[in-house]
C-alpha cells in the first residue's frame, strides 16, 4: 500500500504557552488504513489531528516545526481549499464546524463552495443522507436536533466532497449505542471504498476488529505504535474496554434522604408525554434512551430553561445543570476562579479538594479555555461539588474522557450524591455501571422503565442499550 500520511519530527506549542503540546511526532499511515490515535485526556491527540488538517497553524497560532506530508506533499504548502479536498474532518464538538442553521443547507455548503451544479448537489445530498441515515432530519434547524444527530450530520458533511482521508476527533462521544454501531458500519464502508480513516478516540469497543494500527500518545509524545492484537496484550494500560458488556458490575450504595425533585405528568411539544418521577438525596439516576428521545429536553425543563406545556415540576431550590457543551458555562479567569464564582462562600480548601478529585489541581492558575476538551468537562463537573444546590443534572459528563478520568468523575459524583440528588444523562455504559443506583429509560417521549440498578439487574441495562 502507498504511504499517504507522514509526520516527521513534528513539534508544536500553542501561542503564549511555555509548554510544548506535542514533541518528536513521527509516524506513517498508508492509504486505506483505519488508524486510532488514543491516550489520556490532554495527551496531544487533538493537537495532532489539527496539525494534519491544517487548523494548526492557519487558525490556531503557535510554534510548529517538522514536516507533515499528505500524498508526498507538505501540508503547510497547500491552500486550505486543496486540504478540504484531501481531508474531511469531524470535530469533537460538531457545532464548531457548522456554517448554516439548516441541515440540508449545511450538507450542501461545501459542494456549493466548490461549484457543484444543482442537480449534482441534490443527487449527493440524497445519496449521503441515506448512507449516513439522516433523511429524517433533512431541512431542519441544526440547533433543534439532538447532539447525536448533529454528530451524524457532521460526518455526512465531512464525507460530502469525498476526500481521501476522513479524520474524526471523538466521533462517538455524543452517540447512543445503536448510532455508535452505525458509526462502526460507516467506517467499514469507508474502508471498503478505499478511504483512509484516522480516529482520535477513548472509546474503543466499536472499533474492535477494524484497526490496522493504534498510535498511543502519552504526555505529548508517541509512546508506541501497535497492531490491534499487540495493543490488546498490553498490561496495566489505562484504556477503555474493547468488550463493552463484559466489564465487572459495581453495586452502588443507596442511602436515600429527602425528596428534592418531583415531576408530575409533564408534556412538552411532541417530545415528552406525561412524564412523572421523583428523585431524592442519595440517588444517582441514570437517564438513558436513544438520541433525540428528549433526555436533554427533560434536563432543560427541570432546570427551568424551558417551560412544560403541561404538568408540574417541583424542585428544592435551583438545580445545577452541567450541559453537554461546557464552553457555554465557563466564565472564570482561571480554573480556581471558576469554582469561586460557583459559590462565593466556598472555602479555598474545598476548591483545592474538588480540583484534586478531578485531576486539575496542577492547572488551577490556568485559564479554562486553555484546557483540553476533557479537562474542561472535568472542571464543569467539579462546579457541582462546591455548589449549594440539592439537585445536580449532568448531561453526558464523560464525553471525551479517558478511563482514568471517567473513574475520577464517577468517584466525585458518588461523593456529591451523599448530600444531593443526581441525574445523569449518558450513553456511556461503562460509566453508568460504575456510578448509578437507579435507571430511567425514556422511549417515545415517555418513561418505559424505572428500576433500581443493582447486582443481578445489570442485564436490564444491557438489553436497553441493545434496543437503543
From TrEMBL:
One GO CC annotation, please?
A: ATP-binding cassette (ABC) transporter complex
Write out the entry's keywords from A to Z.
ATP-binding, Cell membrane, Membrane, Nucleotide-binding, Repeat, Translocase, Transport
Bilayer topology reads:
Peripheral membrane protein
Q: What sequence ranges are listed for the domain ABC transporter?
A: 5-244, 247-468
What are this entry's molecular-function GO terms?
ATP binding; ATP hydrolysis activity; ATPase-coupled transmembrane transporter activity
Query: Does the record bear Cell inner membrane in its keywords?
Result: no
Asked if the Swiss-Prot or TrEMBL record annotates the protein with the keyword Zinc-finger, the reply is: no
Location of the protein in the cell = Cell membrane
Q: Check the record and name the InterPro entries matching this protein.
A: AAA+_ATPase, ABC_transporter-like_ATP-bd, ABC_transporter-like_CS, ABC_transpr_CbiO/EcfA_su, ECF_ABC_transporter_ATP-bd, P-loop_NTPase
Q: Spell out the family assignment given in the record's similarity comment.
A: Belongs to the ABC transporter superfamily.
The UniProt function text for this chain reads: Probably part of an ABC transporter complex. Responsible for energy coupling to the transport system.
The name on file for this protein is Energy-coupling factor transport system ATP-binding protein
Which species is the source of this protein?
Answer: Sporanaerobacter acetigenes DSM 13106
Q: What is the lineage of its organism?
A: Bacteria, Bacillati, Bacillota, Tissierellia, Tissierellales
Amino acid at each position: 500500500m502507498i504511504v499517504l500520511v507522514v509526520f516527521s519530527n513534528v513539534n508544536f506549542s500553542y501561542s503564549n504557552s511555555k509548554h510544548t503540546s506535542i514533541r518528536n511526532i513521527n509516524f506513517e499511515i498508508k492509504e486505506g488504513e483505519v488508524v486510532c490515535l488514543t491516550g489520556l485526556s490532554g495527551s496531544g491527540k487533538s493537537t495532532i489531528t489539527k496539525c494534519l488538517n491544517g487548523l494548526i497553524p492557519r487558525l490556531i497560532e503557535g510554534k510548529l516545526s517538522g514536516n507533515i506530508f499528505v500524498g508526498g506533499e507538505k501540508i503547510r504548502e497547500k491552500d486550505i481549499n486543496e486540504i478540504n479536498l484531501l481531508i474531511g474532518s469531524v470535530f469533537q464538538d460538531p457545532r464548531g464546524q457548522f456554517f448554516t442553521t439548516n441541515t440540508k443547507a449545511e450538507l450542501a455548503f461545501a459542494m456549493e463552495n466548490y461549484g457543484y451544479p444543482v442537480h449534482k448537489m441534490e443527487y449527493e445530498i440524497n445519496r449521503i443522507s441515506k448512507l449516513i441515515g439522516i433523511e429524517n432530519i433533512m431541512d431542519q434547524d441544526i440547533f433543534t436536533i439532538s447532539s447525536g444527530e448533529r454528530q451524524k450530520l457532521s460526518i455526512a458533511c465531512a464525507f460530502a466532497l469525498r476526500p481521501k482521508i476522513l479524520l474524526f476527533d471523538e466521533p462517538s462521544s455524543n452517540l447512543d449505542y445503536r448510532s455508535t454501531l452505525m458509526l462502526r458500519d460507516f467506517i467499514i464502508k469507508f474502508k471498503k471504498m478505499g478511504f483512509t480513516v484516522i480516529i482520535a478516540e477513548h472509546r474503543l469497543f466499536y472499533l474492535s476488529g477494524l484497526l490496522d494500527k493504534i498510535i498511543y500518545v502519552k504526555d505529548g509524545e508517541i509512546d508506541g505504535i501497535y497492531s490491534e492484537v499487540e495493543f490488546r496484550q498490553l498490561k496495566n494500560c489505562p484504556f477503555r474496554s474493547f468488550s463493552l458488556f463484559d466489564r465487572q458490575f459495581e453495586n452502588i450504595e443507596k442511602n436515600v434522604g429527602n425528596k428534592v425533585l418531583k415531576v408530575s405528568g409533564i408534556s412538552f411539544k411532541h417530545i415528552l408525554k406525561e412524564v412523572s418521577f421523583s428523585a431524592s438525596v442519595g440517588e444517582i439516576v441514570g437517564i438513558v434512551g436513544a438520541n433525540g428521545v428528549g433526555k436533554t429536553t427533560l434536563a432543560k425543563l427541570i432546570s427551568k430553561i424551558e417551560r412544560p406545556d403541561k404538568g408540574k415540576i417541583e424542585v428544592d431550590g435551583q438545580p445545577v445543570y452541567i450541559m453537554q457543551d461546557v464552553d457555554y458555562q465557563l466564565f472564570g479567569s482561571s480554573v480556581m476562579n471558576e469554582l469561586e464564582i460557583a459559590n462565593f462562600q466556598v472555602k479555598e480548601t474545598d476548591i483545592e479538594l474538588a480540583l484534586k478529585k478531578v485531576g486539575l489541581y496542577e492547572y488551577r492558575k490556568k485559564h479554562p479555555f486553555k484546557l483540553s476538551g476533557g479537562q474542561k468537562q472535568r472542571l464543569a463537573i467539579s462546579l457541582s461539588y462546591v455548589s449549594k444546590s440539592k439537585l445536580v443534572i449532568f448531561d453526558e459528563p464523560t464525553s471525551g474522557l479517558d478511563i482514568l478520568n471517567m473513574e475520577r468523575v464517577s468517584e466525585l459524583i458518588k461523593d456529591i450524591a451523599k448530600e444531593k440528588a443526581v441525574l445523569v444523562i449518558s450513553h456511556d455504559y461503562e460509566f453508568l455501571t460504575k456510578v448509578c443506583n437507579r435507571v430511567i429509560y425514556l422511549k417515545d417521549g415517555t418513561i418505559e422503565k424505572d428500576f433500581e440498578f443493582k447486582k443481578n439487574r445489570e442485564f436490564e441495562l444491557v438489553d436497553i442499550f441493545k434496543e437503543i
